[in-house]
Amino acid sequence: MDKSSEGIVEETDNGCEWDMASDTCELTGNQLSSDEDTDSNEENDFKMDDFKDEEADEFPDLEWLKELYEENDSDDDLASEQGDVKQRTFSETARMFKLRRNLHQLDNFQRQKECALLKAREDLSLLRQSIESLLEQRDVLEREIEHQEAAKNSVAVIRLRAQHKTLCYKLQREEEIEAQTNNELRQQELELSEIELEVGKFSVLRKEVQEEGRVIEVHKAQNAVKRLQQEMNNSHTLQLKIQHLKKKNADIMGKTVTLRQKENEDVQANRTVGAKYLRKTVLRLQQQEAEREQKKRESMQKRIQAVKLLKSNIEATQENLRVRQSRAKANTLKKERQEKRLKETLQAEGINSTRHINQQKRDEEMKRKQEEFKERQTTRKVEIVDKLLEEQLVKSRKAQKAPLPKTKTGHKILSPGKIREKLLRYLDSVHPSGTERETKLRNLSASGSSSDSDYQEDIIQKEMQHLSLPDSLEEPEFCGLWDQNFKPPLNEKARLTPTDVKQEHAVICPKVTTTPKKVGGKQIKGPSFTSKPEVILFKDFEVGETYKKKVVLTNISYITNHCKFLGISAQLQDFIMINFQPPGPLSTGMSCEMHITFHPSINEDLEGEVDFTSAAGRFSVPVRCTIKRCDLEVDNQFIDFGSHVVGQIISRTITLTNKGALATRFSLDTTKPVPEIHQVQMPSHRSADTQQAGQTDTSTVSTTCADLTQTSASMITREVHSLEHDLTRSTVTQQSQRESQVSSPAARATPVSSSMLPQIPEGLSDASDIRIGNVREGDIGPFESVKLEIIFSPTVPGEVKLDLYIKFSDPTSFPIAILVKGEGAGLPVWVVEPNIDMKICMFDHLYQEVVTLQSSTSTALKLTFDLWPEMRKHMEIIPRTGFLQAQSSFTAHLKFVPRNTLPQDAGKYFDSATGVLEVPMTVQVAGQVQPVIYTVQAIVTSSDLKFGQSEMDFGYCSIYQSFKSSVRLTNMSLLPQEFGFVGLPEFVDVQPNDGFGTLLPQETLEIDIIFSASKAKEYRFHLSCKSGINRVFPLACRAMGVCPTLALSHSLVQFGPTAVGDQSTALLYLTYNQTVPKQSKQRPSTGALLFSFTPPQDSSISITPAAGRLLPGKRCLVLVTFNPKLEDRNIKEEALRLLRAKQTNEADIKKLLDEEAKREVEPSKGNKLSKSSKLSKVSAKTASPIYTSPTDSIDAGGQRFEEARASLLHSFTSRYNEYTIPCFVSDGDPPEEDRQAQPTWSPLNTVYLKLQCPAVQPPLVVVSSNIRNYALDFQQVAVGERVTKRFSVKNISAESLELRSSLLDIYGPFLLLNALRGIGPGEQHTLVLAFCPTLEKKYCETLEVRCQKMTLAVTLRGEGMVPAITSSHPGRLLDFDYVLEKESTSHVLKLQNSSAVAVGFKAMLYSLSPSKTQGADEGVALLLGGYTDSKIQPVVGTQNHNGLSVFSVLPVEGSIAARQSQDVVVTFHPDHPSVNYSDQLTIELVNKRKLCVLDLKGAASSHNMYLCGGDPLTVPIESLLPPLITSETQLEGQSEDMEIPVLVTLRASYSMGTIRPAVRELEVGCIRATKKGSEFNWDNMASLQQKGFDVDPSKGNVEAGTRRTIKLTWTPQSGHKPNEVVKMCVPLTLKGDETSVYSVTLLALVSTHVE
After folding, report:
1. What is the DSSP string of 436-453?
2. 709 contacts 382 by C-beta, under 8 angstroms
3. Taking the mean position of all CA atoms in its chain, how far away is CA 580?
């Protein structure tokens, strides 16, 4: 029954449809089985009615199976083809699957019960055997008890009775377990019987299931026959196609061979012709290159000469500058001496020398300024007149070419002579005479009135230029400002602001002009017509707009009159159109209308007239058109803040108004507008310290200004910049002197007048007391005003002045100057020490300081000390309030107690990182606006002592040893602190200084704590460290005292004096100790123990065996070896010392030789000898320093290293070292399951061995350079070759030594060729050794040279070798990836020769090898073997069309030197697109051994972006492609309009009733970056998703040199037929340098084969 059911299961698993149905039915069966289990628990029986009831149920998860039956009635695999057999219904199929599953579960349950029953029976049998054994043992014990009782052995009787009792207890337990097991066995037998009964009830159903299985098997056999027949037909068809394909390939191959032969012939001919022209081209290029090189050399020579000339000029300039500087310095010193003498003379006469000198300096400065001003005014007058004359000349020339328009009445053209006279009168009126100027300058204050006058001069000159006609303008069509009369200002004192200048331009034209005429015998006076408006004004017009106005003409004469339009001015004809209808005769008071249309096309002011005629004569109406302009002015140009106390903040506001219709941008700053180059002015103020030097500079500048017309602008600019830089430096010096004077109390008490302070040069002033408000710049619109705030906040006493300038972006608007003035008065009360430094303070300690205030007033003032709320916990001032008497001081006490909460309370005043506290404090003074400020500074530090660890664990300590552990004690304070460990237990010791000492600030000290356990127990205690301020810092300690299981025969080994290079040994015994003290908590060990000695690294101690296994009661022999040697660090230091001594000796010798040479040359005279001695001393001092190389540059084993070793051995003195070596003991053997596992080492059983090792000087040393570190290395020697080397030993002792040697291996490669003999003190002996290897391996032996006092061991090493070479690439595949066509990429292979001889190699390509396969056999075999298998590729793939190999190698052959490497460059250079480029590279050595074989692979694309992946559509050989199949190369070469086909097959796997979605991947790559970017996009995504396809991502960008993976997923939709193939074609667009479209065909199907 079981086998049949299993057969059914196997049969049903073979069919795809049955598997899918069984999976669904299995889910249904899970529901049914749960219901059946419930029914079996209630009734314990299965009924057939249950299955009948279930047939009527509809299962929602089988809907797809019902659809499958409805759609596929003819080809249903579940229906029989016989006509008499009815088709099964859906419910029958589901019922059959459910029955099969339930029967299978029932059979499995029965088998489980049977297995459980067999196991229970075996357990019962084992129990019974155990009971029988226990019964036998009990009988034996009873007999033994009777025997011992008879012998009256009470001790044995008691022991046997105890064993008997234990055995009886075990027997009772076994009998109870037997009874329990027997009951369980009966229960399982009963359950098995019930299950077998249930199985018998379903025998009918089982037969039915078997019958169904047989029907299915028959149906499958029939389907198999049909499928086999179909496959045979397909195979026959495929064979016919292959035969046809072979014939076509043969024809194509023949044509290809013919074409290739012809192409080769053409290529050979082209090469011959190209070589001829190439030689000519190369010769021509060489000639051109030689000419360029000659020109380059000539140009370089010229440059060198120019640089030399420039260098000489620079040196000359520097020399001149040095002369000038020295001269200026001498003049300054001379002037200072004269001032000093003058000062002394005045003081002797009783005159105030300071005031007299300052007054004299001011007079001289004023005089110099007047002279400079006169010179500048004269120069400017001449320049202005010359400029105007030149403009007048240009105007006259243009007037000759084109006549000027007619001038109107009231406008006069002045002659050049009159213009010159008016200008001179104007300049004389604007600039007063020298006497008047001097009077004004003396009356002016130090507010910088000269700057205002200079600014007026700039404005006047700009106005004159504005009135003149530029050279570059053409003749205008209308009259301008030059045709109007210029009237100089009547008021000399009025300032010429930009607003005033604009008003001068306004010329009021007449309303209506007429000529008197007689009418009817009456003379008409005045105009006969009046216009409304009187002036036709188009104000603020914009180009391109149209403006209209209506003008009403009224007859105001007393007669009937008429009006006739004559015309308009010529300059208005292109812009104004008149619409006027003659009204006829008009009576008195009658009027007529005229419409004027203005359409401007240029942005210029226009003026003209509209002419009419009447009975009384001609009259005209003026027309004026004005553009948008800026009309800017301020309400106040002088701001005087007055006198204010230091610290006050005062603000003033000025209003900037724009009355024009044009917006502009303004900026308010202190920078003076930059004048023209020919108007450069130097500052007029100099400090007293630089006045003398300034005179020279001023004369230079004045000379420069005078000759400005003859000097280039660039030279003037550079000199001006340099002078301004000097003035800036002098200004900074004056400000620093001013601040130093103000900082003193006397300066605070007495205000400093402006006359006593040096004047700051104009344009360079940057007073920090006067500043501009928030509005510094902005836009001002038409007819708007802006408020500008100026703030005065004096910081130091004294008068402050500042010139502000409002500049505008409008080029027609001139800057407006504003003079700001203020005076700061000093504070009457100040703190004597404004910075109170509390030094370094500790937390919770009291510190006091005194705060002293001084008053300079004549009245008493009330003082109130303010204290920040957050600092009230830490600071206190006593008293808080007091009265400061007149002209006296007041003292308050400051108490400072820093608490631990200071970092949180102080906040921003405390820096937690540095501990610096800086608190600004204030004192409020009655009647004083600004409080007195002082600062309290302190460095707050902690008083903590901090241990490096909170708890010290000594671990397990043997009672036979003392253990030392170190802890770091750090002083966290910035002050030194004393400490001491007090109250120490008797088993603890603290060092150094018994635990007492002093810690410097932030110092860390290593404290050694020594613990000596007296008993085997656990120790827990605390150590108390007390500081000098009585603070206690505890340190917790713990340890475990143990008694080790293993014991050494000697815990202390004292070696005898051992020579360096020799060795001493000691024998010890390690014994297994099973006795443990009673007070110890250790459990005694009964098994074998593992031990391991751990000597210190880089020491001269070695222990054998270092590890082992010891049984209980046994002991192990331990050999301890002491081999003293010199440390490499000491040897390197000695080598460095020897090198320095050698260099010093060489320097001394050279110095002595030089001195002797000098003595021989010079005569022996006293003075000359003294000179030579001095020279020698100077040469010794100036000698080059001795070269000192670091110890890292000395190689271990080098010549210097060995010399230093020999030096140390000769001067070696005795030394003594002690070592403590632990021996770790494990708890037992490793587990049997894993013998390689690391055993657990028990700290309880650790044993320590103490060694005392004295070392002495060796009597015998090696003195040869061949020996490196007591080793003679023969290096690599070819097998069979013999090499001989020598080394010498020297006796450095005071006694004779007899030398002996050890025996070498007689079968080894080393051989001692000479005999040894005795050597006396200081003598040497040479040993000759030979090395002859026979195999390729390394050899090593030890040769011992023995004497009476030591044994010198020399290691002999050598290696027999065979030449070897390696490659950086392991072989196999070398992929070059995608490359653009006709471009190349390379890969470098490095061949490394690791042997000591040179090795030759040869690089061969399979495509160029003469032994490669000829003909098309390989291609045909590829087609026959696997047309669609992408893994099968030919060795040589696609080649270039030009006949050259697509892969190239350089060098083709060569030789690699010993221990050197050689680079082999493999280049991939395709000339057309293809993905099938391949070749094979073989690198072969001279001995015909192949070093590596590389499969070269590459792909080429014609576009920047490419798509890879998918199913292959072609074979990898282009020449074998049939005409019907388009190769990938042809596809890539097509135009952009053609789509490139790509096939992707997706197979969804079906297994065990589940369908796993099919997943494929495509890769989109980008070779290099482009300006357009690299992106891809899938089209028609909606249709893909409808058929179950999913593309991730559907679009994106690809970075240069990378690939982007596209994941294609297909999930079969509900209702998909098993054998149905889903096909979908979707375009993929790649956009790079060009756009390419791929037509991706997606084929999806369900497969039962798991891939």
Report:
1. HHHHHHHHS-TTTHHHHH
2. no
3. 81
Strands (DSSP E) found in 615-703: 617-627, 632-634, 638-645, 650-658, 664-669
Helix segments in 494-550, DSSP class H = 498-505
The 3-state DSSP composition of the chain as helix, strand, coil percent (nearest 5) reads 35, 30, 35
Helix count and strand count (H, E) for the chain: 22, 78
Distance, in Å, from the CA atom of 1313 to the CA atom of 1282, rounded to the nearest integer, reads: 13
Amino acid at the residue 1615: G
Distance, in Å, from the CA atom of 512 to the CA atom of 509, rounded to the nearest integer, reads 9
Strands 606-614 and 563-568 turn out to be antiparallel
**Is the pTM above the cut of 0.70?**
no
Residue type, 840: I
1272: nearest Cα among 1361, 1341, 1193, 1366: 1341
Residue type, position 1043, single letter: C
Q: Which residues pair with 1499 in a beta bridge?
A: 1378
Q: Which of 212, 179, 198 is nearest to 98 (CA)?
A: 212
Q: Could you please report the per-residue DSSP string of 968-993? A: EEEE-SSS-EEEEEES--TTEEEESG
Give CA–CA dist 550/1214, Å, rounded. Answer: 128
- Does residue 1362 carry a pLDDT above 70? yes
Query: Strand pairing of 536-541 and 617-627?
Result: parallel
How far is the CA of 216 from the CAs of 77, 96, 100, 1551, in angstroms?
9, 12, 14, 19
Neighbours of 391 (CB within 10 A): 20
Helix axes 90-151 and 63-71, enclosed angle (nearest 10): 140
Give dist(CA 1315, CA 1293) in Å, integer: 22
Q: What is the identity of the amino acid at 1528?
A: E
1430 close to 1515: Cβ distance less than 8 angstroms: no
Q: How far apart are CA 1571 and CA 1559, in angstroms?
A: 34
Q: How many C-beta atoms surround the C-beta of residue 262 within 10 A?
A: 10
How many other CB atoms are found less than 10 A from the CB of residue 666? 24
Distance, in Å, from the CA atom of 94 to the CA atom of 1200, rounded to the nearest integer, reads 96
Q: State the pLDDT at residue 970.
A: 94
Q: Are 1506 and 1378 in contact (CB under 8 A)?
A: yes
Alpha-helical (H) ranges within 888-936 are 902-906
> In degrees to the nearest 10, what's the CA dihedral of 80, 82, 88, 94?
-30
Q: Which residues of 241-253 are buried (b: 16+ CB within 10 A; e: fewer)?
A: eeeebeeebeebb
- Give 330: exposed, middle or buried? Use CB within 10 Å, 0-12, 13-18, 19+: exposed
Q: Which of 1345, 1357, 1341 is nearest to 1275 (CA)?
A: 1357
d(CA 256, CA 593): 100
Structure tokens at 169: 């207890």
Sign of torsion over alpha carbons 420, 422, 427, 428: positive
pLDDT of the residue at 1034: 93
Q: β-pairing, 770-772 with 962-971?
A: unpaired
Nearest alpha-carbon partner for 1331 in 1298, 1349, 1309: 1309
Q: What is the mean pLDDT of the chain?
A: 75
**Helices marked H in 402-541:** 416-430, 434-443, 449-467, 498-505
Structure tokens at 1137: 């010392």
The encoded tokens of residue 1208 equal 């140390």
| Residue 1005: band (very low, low, confident or very high) from pLDDT cuts 50, 70, 90 | very high
Which positions ≥6 away from 120 have C-beta within 8 Å? 181, 184, 185, 188
Q: 1476 versus 241: which is more confidently predicted?
A: 241
Q: Residue 686, SS3?
A: coil
| Torsion angles phi and psi, residue 128, rounded to 5 | -65, -40
